[in-house]
Design a protein that fits this description.
The chain is α+β, with helices and mostly antiparallel strands and 195 residues long. It has one domain: Alpha-Beta Plaits (2-Layer Sandwich), CATH 3.30.70. Helix content is 30%, strand content 23%. The chain contains six helices and six strands; from the N terminus they run αβαββαβββααα. The strands form two sheets. It has a four-stranded antiparallel β-sheet. Strands 1-4 form a two-stranded antiparallel sheet. Helix 4 packs antiparallel against helix 5. The N and C termini lie far apart (88 Å). It binds iron/sulfur cluster (SF4) (2 copies). One iron/sulfur cluster (SF4) binds next to helix 3.
Length: 195
């Protein structure tokens, strides 16, 4: 009789928890679980993740706005720091940010419990310093990204021009695109000489 077996099972489980112990007990997630994106200190602020995020959950904005003149643009306002925010309430957990990050700085972690009345409490923020142009003083790119790109250029460029590029790197790496274009001939760092 089904009702007896049901009764027996109920008696057997008397006093036991019939469901998991969540949220007091959290089961470990599988290795490839896609929970909340976590951004580590390795983030250099390149914004590749923000460009590729299909839902716009990752955004970047300048902070510590300063006023200074660009080579051609005249006085303008620029941030000296860049803030990257992951808005978890907009995240699709697709993993695209993790795929494109060149530094493996963003990973979808094991956090999956987002029940809250204040969704923005799960948002993540990372802040990086922007490098100022050595000529016009305009902040133009994340400092960490410039250093990373410099290392990759030296590492991967044609060996026949490696020494020349390495010698010129400190002179042009810290110039904004406007100043680089304007004074590269005078500095003798124009790319033409490597070809
Ligand atoms: S380093 Fe990675 S996490 Fe940081 S901005 Fe670039 S892609 Fe995003
Ligand atoms: S997992 Fe997808 S939706 Fe979520 S932040 Fe990354 S790229 Fe955007």
């Amino acid at each position: 009789m089904p009702s007896f077996s049901l009764l027996a099972r109920s008696l057997r489980n008397l006093g036991k928890c019939a469901t998991s112990g969540f949220p007091d007990v959290r089961e470990p997630t599988p290795p490839r679980f896609r929970g909340r994106p976590e951004v580590s200190e390795d983030c250099m602020g390149c914004q590749a993740c923000a460009e590729q995020c299909p839902s716009g959950a990752i955004r970047t904005e300048p902070r510590d706005i300063t006023s200074c003149g660009g080579a051609d643009a005249g006085p303008a306002k620029f941030g000296t720091r860049l803030v990257l925010t992951v808005e978890v309430a907009r995240c699709l957990f697709c993993g695209r940010c993790q795929e494109v990050c060149p530094k493996e700085a963003v990973k979808l972690g094991g956090c999956y419990d987002f029940s809250t009345q204040h969704p923005s409490g799960f948002d993540l923020r990372r802040e990086v310093a922007l490098a100022a142009c050595g000529v016009c003083g305009r902040p133009f790119a994340p400092r960490g990204q410039l250093e990373w790109v410099g290392l990759r250029v030296v590492d991967q460029i044609d060996p026949s021009v490696r020494d020349a590029v390495k010698a010129d790197l400190p002179a042009y790496r810290d110039l904004c695109p406007d100043c680089r274009r304007t004074i590269s001939i005078r500095l003798n760092t124009h790319t033409e000489k490597y070809i």
